[in-house]
Amino acid sequence: MTRRMWTYAGLAAGLVLVVFPFGWTLLASFKPEGEIRRDPPTLLPEQWTLGNYAGLFERTQMDAAFFNSAVVALAAVAGNLLFCSMVGYAFAKLRFRGRNVLFALVLVQLMVPAIVVMIPQFVLIAKFGLVNTFLGIILPTIVTPLGIFLMRQFMADIPDELLHAARVDGAREFRIFFQIVLPLCKPALATLGLITFFTSWNAFIWPAVVAQSEDMYTLPVALAIFSNAQATQYGLLIAGAVVVVAPILVLFLFLQRYFVQSTTFTGLK
Amino acid sequence: MVATAETGVRRAAGTVPRPLRGTGIGWLFVTPFVVVFAVFWAGPLLVGLGMSFTDMRSTDVRNPLGVELVGLRNYLRLFDDELMRRAAVNTLVFVVTTLPLTIGLGLAAAVALNSGIARLPAAFFRLGYYLPYVTSIIGIAVAWRFLLDPEAGPVNQLLAAVGVDGPSWLADETLALPVIIVMTAWRSFGFDMIILLAALQGIPKELYEAAEVDGAGRWARFRWVTVPMLRPALLFCTVYSSIGFTQFMEEPLVMTRGGPAGATTSASLAIYNQFGSGNFGYAGAAATVLFTVIAALAFLQFRLGRSR
Asked: Do residues A78 and A35 both lie within one domain?
């Protein structure tokens, strides 16, 4: 029994260390700048204020950035749900020449560091006239190796007899895919949607390269640029960090089952 | 992952009934990947490789014909470049320390969560530990820079309360990289924890019972049952994390911009900076070396992981 108590104590101590930066920062975002810097510090705000948030939205275009982030993330989700499941289906259930080579390429892409292809990608985007557009931010990750891998692994477990029966009945492959396969993949699709959403929402380097005017910034880009300009205005910066992080935290709290599943999917099977 | 993927392909190839329509339909389904891969990944990879043998600069983008071939000069320059050498060393130090730290923390958390504690608290802890992994790096950087601020930050205020004069963490050449290492492990171990936890839950109870009957103690059971059964999951964590950690860049970019004095400049960040200064050819050479190292590393780990 004492061993169990020690386990609980260790886990709890770990949790405090992990969550402390979140909690402290969140509370500090409701303190006036003077109280944030006070020594010794206060844990709970003595004087609750939304002034930091008001100041943030006054000084930056965070509202536009919020909208941009939502557009980019939702478009990436839509693209990945459709395309990753199509490609995953082909790898799991269709036979065609070159399948194994193509699948090896999926794994190769997983290993290509973003920095290695970034500039040629940018030159390409520029040639297409897509600099400073949503399309330019989204296109390179509209279908991702991790998503393909996840969908393929999930679809591999769908019984072949089911598809075969439909084929014998004369159903075309696209109908089988949309009417039989996709409805069976709801858990995998939910997981893929979530991974894509949070990856896209948190993406920072590529959006910073493509978005060039303030009205096109996504949230992380807007916050990064603001933090370079205002390195010590902690009240405003912390409020900005909360605005960037909060939507993901809320999603996470409600849908944590799928988040956890997503990680398990990528690792195992 | 390659290992499981390949066996998956082999298994699938044996059992799939041939679709009624020919091979064309498969290609139709994979078209989205083929197009995006060719245009945005394979193409740029080759362009980057080509660039690395030229003296291309950002000003040459409009007129690629003005670029001259310089052979291996960019590659040779890499080895004489003090900053690149420092970036390589920083990357090595970062990977070698962050990798075991992250996996160790993930394993400890997974084992603790799997040691028979009640369901609800276990879910609660798991949720908390996984939180930093899904959080935006720039949000985290803002929070950590505030926490570690030499005057306004609570960390140094806490240290002062016990009589310790806290350093200025991110401005100190010897402390900046360790801070980023700790931050990365803090942020990433939840991922390994989830994977290892799933693997732990998949170990048959009978194995432990049999080991206990044979007189194996707690440690012996961990060493000779748990660890071998976790091998595939540990291998995956190692490969996946080391690929990610070798190309780390966002963390120093948002925490320190590679400073102070290059103390936290990683290989990727050094390449990014070269791009920023317009040295496309030189950056291409460094990027090619980095990709080669990562590919070799992944290949080697799979070889080692499978051969045992």
From this structure: no
**Does residue A221 lie in a domain region?**
yes
Domain residue spans in chain B? 74-307
Closest-CA residue of chain A to B267: A115
A198: closest chain B residue by CA: B134
**Is residue A42 in some structural domain?**
yes
* A156 and A25 belong to one structural domain: no
CATH code of the region B74-307: 1.10.3720.10
From first to last of its 308 residues, chain B has per-residue pLDDT tens of 344 444 444 444 444 444 444 568 888 999 999 999 999 999 999 988 988 898 888 777 677 677 788 888 889 998 888 889 999 999 999 999 999 999 999 999 999 998 888 888 888 898 899 889 989 999 999 999 989 988 888 888 888 888 888 888 898 889 999 999 999 999 999 999 988 998 898 888 888 889 989 888 888 888 889 989 998 889 888 888 998 899 999 999 989 988 788 899 999 999 999 888 888 889 999 999 999 999 898 888 878 877 65
Please name the residues between 229 and 258 in chain B that touch chain A, using a CB distance below 8 Å. 232-233, 236-237, 240, 243, 246-247, 249-250, 253-254
Distance CA B273, CA B84 (A): 11
Please list the alpha-helical segments (H only) found in chain B: 2-15, 24-36, 43-51, 73-80, 82-113, 119-130, 137-147, 154-161, 176-201, 205-213, 218-221, 227-246, 250-255, 267-276, 280-307
Do A5 and A121 belong together in one domain?
A: no
Q: Which residues of B touch A4 (CB under 8 A)?
A: 115-117
Cβ contact A94–B16 (<8 Å):
yes
CB contact under 8 A, A94 and B15: no
Q: Domain check: are A19 and A141 in the same one?
A: no
Q: Which chain A residues are Cβ-neighbours of B41 within 8 angstroms?
A: 109, 112, 117, 140
ipTM at complex level: 0.86
Given its phi and psi angles, is residue A32 left (phi above 0), alpha (psi -120 to 50 degrees) or beta? beta
Q: Is B186 within 8 Å of A18 when comparing Cβ atoms? A: yes
Total domains in chain A come to 2
Distance of CA B269 to the CA centre of its chain: 14
